[in-house]
Structure formats: structure tokens, C-alpha cells
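re: ur question from earlier - yeah i can do the single chain one, its not a big deal. heres the input i used so u can compare w yours
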Amino acid sequence: MTASASLDRDLGVGLSARVLRVYGAHALTSVASNLLMLSFFFYAKQIFHWSAAACLGLVSAEGAVYIVGALAANSIAARFGRRGGLLLLQTILVVLCGLAWIYPKPMAVVPILLVYTTACAAVWPAVESLVVAGTSGDMLSRRVGLYNLSWSAVGAATLAVSGIIISRYPAGMFLIPLAVHIGAAVLLLIGSVEPPADSSQAKPMVSAEPELLVQRTLALHLSRIGLPSTYIVVYSLAALMPSLRVIQSFAPAWQTVVASVWMASRFVTFAFLGATTGWHSRPRLLLVAAFVMLAAFLGVTLRPDEVFGGSPGITPTDQILMILSQIPLGAAMGLIYSGSLYFGMVLSEGSTEHGGYHEALIGVGQSLGPAAALATQTVWPGDNAASVWAVAGLVGVTLVAAVAVSLRHRGARRESPAHSGHADRY
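and the output i got, formated as C-alpha cells:
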């Protein structure tokens, strides 16, 4: 057995050293991207003294360039290979983090972050494709589940500790990403990340059963509608959270801890979904999740006095309500994200191209949600509640579209001669 083959041998849990290197590089990149694309807005609030409008403007622009990077991923992989493309992108990310560390001023950091976001968006599709390459069936579900666990765990932990970094060592917001991107590049260099030529990739990932194929197709449609709305919420929340009165009632170092509860909830949801398969045949759970997400988002961002009137002061009850609302928010987001990635990968045979579409939908949500919130800030400056309602309205539009798709699917199935007459499973 050659040294390379020894490195890539199966480790007994359906994972080879090759796949573990991909997971490792992905986790390190996630540390950096979470610091610079989510935690950064707490940095901007405390160090740059940005308003909610300034944060919304940046995150909306990042969403636009994220789409460009995601859609470019397949071309980069075709030109340089998945490994070569990832190494090129990691090099670019290292340079960008170095520049931000050397000159951490808004006039430099803003364009750097826009280029950084573009490059990061091109990284994820290649990683997603490598994770599922050479597998099929239940193993694909396990790989996707572990992929989701890795980045969600890292994201929750990174956001939670970023308040300490911002308070005690602000330069670490750029120096830590620089270091971890170097680490990710090293992992990609030390061994192959492509599956062996005789892998099971040739085996079909999709069951031949027509009923299951129909269910998966409906699930893909629902998740592709729900995924942008999920990131409408994620990035609107990222930009608005540092300015929410209830968050500001906590000490700076604790603000990011409190703000990371939804990410911890999403991680738990990913763990549950990765260990089960029942949701694979219940596509309308994605529709239920979208309604839960909207209600929970309003619970996180609006205080009772902003809805019903009353004393504008922040009480312990307000703090508890905001924290508890993050639990169903994270769970709903986890289900929608898992559905989009799993059903897309299983129907596209794990292609980098689909990974690009998946990430581009994230960029659509990232751009539209904050843009809608920013529009209200131009009319009612500083009114975060108005921004929240604008975001909620946008999510409501996607819910109407999802309901329409679900009803259309139900009608088509009832008219089909192959339909057995039993009710759809929820």
C-alpha cells in the first residue's frame, strides 16, 4: 500500500483521511468566515461605531457579490480542479486577511470584505462536492449531516467568543482568519482530496422509486424557496442584532454569546437530522419550518412594547423571550438548509454546479433581506422595528410562493393515474 493510499484508507465510520482533510479545511475556513461575515458587525458597532443602516448596507452588498462567487465556483473547479481552485482561493483569502490586519480602517476593510465574501462563496460549492464525492445512498446523508455539523458548531462557537476577541484584542478579528486560512491551505496540500477512481460515485444517488423521486423533487423546490428566506433572516439578523436594545442591555463580551443561541440550536437540529432519515420523505416539513422561522424571527427582534406599546425599558422577561425565541429559529433554519443541500446533492449526483446554485440562493437572501431593511432606514432612520417588519414581509412573500408550490404539487399528484390515493406524508 502506498503512502497516499494509506492516508486515504477508510477509518471505519465511512470516512477516509481524504474526507477528514476536507472537513478540517472546511472547519478552519468557517472560523474565519464567521468572524468576518457575521461577528464583524459586532466589531463594526463597537470599533467603527456603525449604525444599523451602515451594517445593513455592507451585508446587502456582500450578498450581491456572494452570488457572483457562488456561480463562479463551477468554472473555477473546471479550470483549476477542485483542489487547485481551493488552494488558489485560500491564498487569496490569506492575502485579504493580511491587508485588513495591516490597515483595519473602514475605507480599506469594506472593499476587502467584499472581495473576501466573493472568494468564500466560491469555496463552499467545491467543498460540498468533495464531501459527497465517491458516495451514494445513506452515506451521502451522513456526509452532508457531518458537513452541516462541522460548520454550524464552528459558527456557534466563533460567534460566542468573538465578543471577547473584540473587547480584548480587536486585531484578532483579522489575524485569526489569516492564521486559519493558512492552516486550511496546508491541509489541502498534504494529501489528495479527490475520491479514488474506483469509488462508488458511479452508483446512482437517487432511488428508482418514482414516488420517492417525486417527494425529493418537491422537497428540493420547497427548500430552494425557503433557503433564500432563511438567509434573508440570517443576515438581516446579523446586521440588526448589535443595534437591538435587548442585546445592548448585555455587557459587550456577553452580547455575542447571547446572539449565538440560534446557531447552537441549528447545530442540535443538524445533529438530529443527520441521525435520522424520516424527514427525507416528508417534504412539507420544510413548509412548516418556514412558518416557524418567521414567527421566531419576530420573537427575537421585536419587544412587546414595540408591538403592543408600553414601557420602552428592557426587562429580564424581554431578555428571556429573545433568547428562547432563538431556539425554534435555529431549528427551522437547520431543517430548511439541510433540505436544500441534501435534496440538491442527491438529485444532482453531488455536483459542484449544484453546490454553486445552493450558495447563490444564500447570496440572494443575504442581499434582499438587508436591502429591504435598509430601505426602511432611509424613511425612518434608526427605527429597527420598521426594518424588522420589512424583512418579515419579504419572508411572507416566500411563504406564499412555498404554499402555492405545495398545493400545485398536491393537485398534480391527485390527477396522476399513478397516484395510489393515500394522503401525502407530512
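Confidence is low (pLDDT under 50) at residues 1-13, 199-209, 417-426. not sure if urs matches, ping me
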